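Example A, followed by Example B.
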Amino acid sequence: MKAAGEVRATVEATGLLRRAPVVVLFSGGRDSTCLLDLAVRLGADVSALHVDYGLRSDSAGDAEHCARVCASLGIELAVQRPRRPEDAGNLQAWARDVRYGAAARLAGARDADVAAGHTASDQAETVLYRLAASPGRRALLGMAARDGRLVRPLLGITRAETAAYCRARGLAWREDASNASDAFARNRVRHELLPALQSVHPAAEENVRRTAELLREEAAVLDEVVAGVLDGREEIELDRLAALPPALARLVVRRLAEGATGTVVPRAARRTGDVLALGSDGALDLGNGARARVRAGILSFEPTPAR
C-alpha cells in the first residue's frame, strides 16, 4: 500500500493537477477528500462543487461538512441542491447527469478542468460492471485519465490508499450509507464480485486495472489503423469494407456511425454483417440513432430521422 508521500508522488506524476484551474467534485467522502487536499498541495487553482440531492436524511450534514473542509483550506465551494423530477428515470444516471452538468457550467465559466475522485478500485469495478452489462472491446477500456475537461488523477490509487492518506493527513470524511446498499448493481460488483475475484488471486483488483490501462494504450493504436483505412473520409466502398479483416471492419463501421451521430453507437460493430448485406443500395437503422446507407456501393452513415 502506498504511503501518503507515495500517493502524492503518483498523482503529481499524472500531470493532471499542474497549477491550472480545476473544479473538484467534492462529495465529502474519502476519495474526493484525498483529491481535494492533493489538488491544493500540488498548487492547483482549486474550487469545489458539492451536489446535495436531498435523497438521504443526513445529506445536509454532508454539505455542512464539505463547507467546513473547504473553509479550512481556503477554497471556494459551490453547493447545488437539485430536486429529482418524477420522470427522471434511473436514479444514479440522473444524479450523474446533474453533477457533471453543474460541474461543466462552473468549469466553463473558469476555463477549468473538472476533477473526479475515481480510484483504481473504481476502475476495476467499472470494467467488471461494463463487461457484464455490455459486450465489446470498449467495456474493457475502463475510464480515461482525461476525457475532455474531465480528469481523474486518482486512477493509480486504490480506495484503501485514499483512506490511509486521509488518516495520515488528519482529514475527516463522510460515509455515504447508500454505498453499502446492494440495491445498486455497481455496489454488488464492489461487495460481491470483486471480493470473489480477490479470493481467487489477491492482486485481482490491480490486474483488472492494469489490463484496462494496457488495452487503452492498444486501443489508441487501433484507432490510428482505422484512421488510416478511412484516410479522412466519412464513407467507404462496401467491397473494400468486406475485404478488411472482420475485426477491422467492425471498428471502421463503428467509427463511421459515431462520427455521423456524434454519440456512442455500441450496436454498430455487431451489425457489420447486416451492413455488408445491404448490397449496392439500401439503408439500415442500427439503433442508438444511427442509420447506415449504401448508394452505388458506397457506405456512409447519418442520424436516424426523427419520426
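Example B, a separate protein, is given below in the same form.
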Amino acid sequence: MTARDFSVRGQRVLVVGAGRSGVAAALLLVRRGASVTLTDRKDQIADVAALQQAGVALELGGHHAETFERADLVVMSPGVALELPEVARARAAGVTVVGDLELASRWLQGPIVAITGTKGKSTTTTLVGRMLEAAGRRVLVGGNIGVPLSAQVESSTADTVHVVEASSFQLEATDTFHPWIAALLNFSPDHLDRHPDVDAYARAKARIFANQEPDDWTVVNAESPEAMALAGQSRARQVRYALDPSAPGASVFADRGFIWQRTSEGDVPLVPLSAVRLSGRHLLSNVVAATAISTLAGADGVAATRALEGFAGLEHVMEPVATVGGVRFVNDSKATNVDAAARSIESFHRVVAIVGGKFKGGDLRDLAAPLEAHGRAVVAIGEARPLISEALGATLPVVEASSLAEAVRRAWELARPDGVVLLAPACSSFDMFADYADRGRRFKEEVRRLAGEAGATGEQ
C-alpha cells in the first residue's frame, strides 16, 4: 500500500495514547483530512494547546468503548497494549486497528531500513543513520528513537532513506509495513510484563520480515541462534554478521584489526577497529551490524569510518559519568533487560552493579555468572529488590537501597578503592522514574552530588 491508495480523508480516526508517537500520529491524521479523537487514561497530557488548535478532540481520564466502536480506524500508540477490551470491541465491530509505525509507513515515499532486537537497537540505528549521511544519502532517523515516524511523513521524499528503530510493541501492530532492509540484532526474553509469553514476543519481532520480498535484504546476527531462526521466516536475501569470523555464514565480521566484508574475491577491509570509541563486545557487535546494514544501503568503508570517529555513544548506554575517589561510575540505564545487563557487567572488572526497578520478565539468575566473574556486589533498587536478593544473594553480597541516592552511595562504598559502579538495571524504570532516560539523568545527578561531597573532603 502506498500514499496514492491509502487515505483517511473524511474518516473518524481514534488515536489511543497521548505520548510522543500518539500526538504525532494525531497531528498527521488531521493534516491528512481525518476527524481525529485522541484518548488517554491520564487526566492531563502534554501538547494540549497544539492538539486543540489543530482540531483534535480529546477524551482524557479513561477510554470510552463507544468511541472505539464508532471509529473508522483506530491507531494504537506503542505504549498501549493491544489487549485492551475496548480494542477487542472495536475489532468485533469491524474497525481496522493499526499501530503508529504501520500508519506512518503507508505514507512514506522513500525506502525503509528497519532495525529491531532485544538490545542494541538505538546504538545501531543511530550509527546507520550517521554512516549513510556520511555517504551523502538523505536520511531521516526515527521510530522508537528520537522523532516519531509520523512526524517525518511530510519530509519524506523518494530519495529519503528512513532508518527506523522498531520495537516489538510497534511491530505487533503492523500489517503492510515493508522494510527494504530489515535487521534483527539478537533475541532474548523481554517485555513479558506486556507480551503474554516469549512466543508472542518472538512473533512480534518476526513481523519485521512479514512483507519482505525476494529483492529485499535481511540482516541477522550469526551468533544469535534465536535471531537466526526468526530471520529464516523472511523471503529476502540474507546477510549475516558476527564478531567471530568463524560464525556460520558470517559475511561481515571483526578480525585482524578491521571490520571485514567477505566477498567472492576475498575479504575486503571496511572499517578499522581503531575508529571505534565504544566499550564492550556488545557495542562492537552493534558497530559490525551497522556496518553491514549501511554497506547494503550504499555507504562505503570510508563513510562508515568517518561516522564512527565522531561517535562516543548514546546517552544512558555505557556512558562514563565520573571518577570519584578512584571509583568509576558508568550509566547504562538503557540496559532494561537481563541479557543487556549481563553484557554490560561483562564489559568491566570489580563491578558493583545497581540492579532493579519494575521487573518485566527473564531470569535474574542469568546475571549470576557474569557477576561472579566480574562483580564485587549488587545494590538492589525498586520493586524488584526481593527478586534480586533471592536470585543473586548466593553469588555475592546483595544490598538493598530504598532510593537511587542511597544506592549510589552504598555502591561507592562497596566499590572502593578501585572498582566500577555500574547502573545496569535489568528492569524497566516505571516504578520510580518517568522512563530509563529519567533514571539515567537522576543517576548522573547523584554521582555529581557525591563527587561534590567527596571533593569537599579531599577524597575525589
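On Example B: The chain has three domains: 12-99, 108-309, 319-455.
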